[in-house]
UniProtKB/TrEMBL annotation, chains A, B:
Belongs to the metallophosphoesterase superfamily. Purple acid phosphatase family. GO terms for cellular component: cytoplasm; extracellular region. The keyword NAD does not apply. PANTHER family: PHOSPHATASE DCR2-RELATED, PHOSPHATASE DCR2-RELATED-RELATED. Homodimer. Signal peptide: none annotated. The lineage of its organism: Eukaryota, Viridiplantae, Streptophyta, Embryophyta, Tracheophyta. The keyword Zinc applies. GO terms for molecular function: hydrolase activity, acting on ester bonds; metal ion binding. This is Calcineurin-like phosphoesterase domain-containing protein. Residues 2-258 form the Calcineurin-like phosphoesterase domain. It comes from Aegilops tauschii subsp. strangulata (Goatgrass). InterPro entries: Calcineurin-like_PHP, Metallo-depent_PP-like, PAP14/16/28/29. Its main location: secreted.
Amino acid sequence: TFKVLQVADMHYADGRSTGCEDVLPEQVAGCSDLNTTAFLYRVIRAEDPDLVVFTGDNIFGADSTDAAKSMDAAIAPAITMNLRWAAVLGNHDQEGTLSREGVMRHLVGMKNTLSRFNPEGVEIDGFGNYNLEVGGVEGTLLANKSVLNLYFLDSGDRSTVWWIPGYGWIKASQQAWFKQTSLSLQKNYRNEEPRQKEPAPALAYFHIPLPEFSSFTASDFTGVKQESISSPSINSGFFTTMVEAGDVKAAFIGHDHINDFCGKLTGIQLCYAGGLGYHAYGKAGWSRRARVVSVQLEKTVSGEWQGVKSIKTWKRLDDQHLTTIDSEVLWNRGSNGRIMTEAEFRLGD
Amino acid sequence: TFKVLQVADMHYADGRSTGCEDVLPEQVAGCSDLNTTAFLYRVIRAEDPDLVVFTGDNIFGADSTDAAKSMDAAIAPAITMNLRWAAVLGNHDQEGTLSREGVMRHLVGMKNTLSRFNPEGVEIDGFGNYNLEVGGVEGTLLANKSVLNLYFLDSGDRSTVWWIPGYGWIKASQQAWFKQTSLSLQKNYRNEEPRQKEPAPALAYFHIPLPEFSSFTASDFTGVKQESISSPSINSGFFTTMVEAGDVKAAFIGHDHINDFCGKLTGIQLCYAGGLGYHAYGKAGWSRRARVVSVQLEKTVSGEWQGVKSIKTWKRLDDQHLTTIDSEVLWNRGSNGRIMTEAEFRLGD
């Protein structure tokens, strides 16, 4: 099992001196960024993840005196617990003393991080577009293959086109890099010994919802939708690009703190985490939360570990019992994960 | 003035032996591909364009005995009249004796063509993605600058993702190439002597409508919408990429033969041509047609020719008088063509 803890929208500022938003009247006194830190420690201890992914708005730049210090404090629990972690930018990380580029440069220089600045030798929009490969079990034939691929993308902050209002989006250059990376990983997985029949599944992490997050009605998803989907005002096609690539089984975002649902569209699960940070808007009485993804490997009859069998998810609430809610299977090998070959497609068309 | 004649959906097959679709009862006898040819000659003589653009479904492969011969016959009027021409693929061109790649290779080898196979040194989806630069008036300072840019893209045939039904789309790799090309052209136009304040306007030509063509109601456009918009079932974001790039003022397509409107969305005119071919579905009594785009240059008080001032369009009908209809201005310099600088944008945000 490989477990990823997603931490969305910490909105960290100056620590103890930074108050909480949207908590119950009796919780206001003494509530600060340190509550965010305390929850993060609790959920890390409870879940013991293999990787922590911070999906943006890690700090709330506008309220932070020193962006680098805020980021250090925000990420500290992962480092202290000696976990490996990765981060992408949200739309608020760059509002303090560091530019968007500066924040990402700071992140990639921090301890234990697997974050990267951007792919080398590629002209690409944004800061913090990279992928991670999760190897098979050591000592097995898949030890040197990536059985699970993780993509991290910078979904921007605001639109950079003056006559388009609203939030940023994942640009064509980023999508072209993603597509090429995905196809290359799929080719290696299938063609290099030991050859695999199907590509390895993948997960994508970024901050701002795609317009397709608006495709669901309450009966279509698990979790809640308590606010509108704050996607950009135009569709830049990343959902289509993921569908085309075929390996991404689920995309995980933040941005809308009081939405925490997962809904499935055209074979891809679109999942919110729900906000974790106390210095971020929320809903008083509705617990701050984090999303866990657990990836199970297949085991042959003879006991050999194989590729990924299933991907599950649940959320942990910052209540007295760290309650687990909304456990569900996001993907099972064989159920909908099969990629048809070109020949099969042509036959069926 | 620089004039482009757009020829959409000729659906050419075997010439005289290939009959007409959807003509009036009295027109059926003797009607064939040669009527398509005759109309093309008429409209070329009437308009004397500087460039003819064939926007796909140039031939109807399934009914063609020899795809290369059909293509030669279809394009012949442009060559005979000694015009320069460019072509993109539709969704039917490859249904005959040549593959999609084969059709495009044939097109780029034909006489007088400015078509190109694909950009060099770039991995790109599809066949026939290229751009053309239209230089300023000879003897003026702009003689060596491209005052008008034309983009040609392969919008595919059918979806290549088995669980997505319907038509193809412009992929991330094509969009990344388009975006880079556009930014590079804009940079040259603004930074190289004689420096220009605003980027040169651009036009895009491809076959299949973007989902954004469905954004209009009858009061929003000029022309008619007599059938539904046959765009792909998902949005691959090319409209957004064009908006981001900022130079494209109008996109011209075919595919839906009995739609011929232009509507403006977020600063970009989205225009159908209306079908030209007689061996293509149409509407009996509703004339086959072609779209003309006329680009005017600015002239200083001292009589020096400058960059593009305005872009106009109209359609020519294959009736007795080659009637001109739906004349309109697509773009005027200064009206909506101005690109704000990053600094201006930030100020206003």
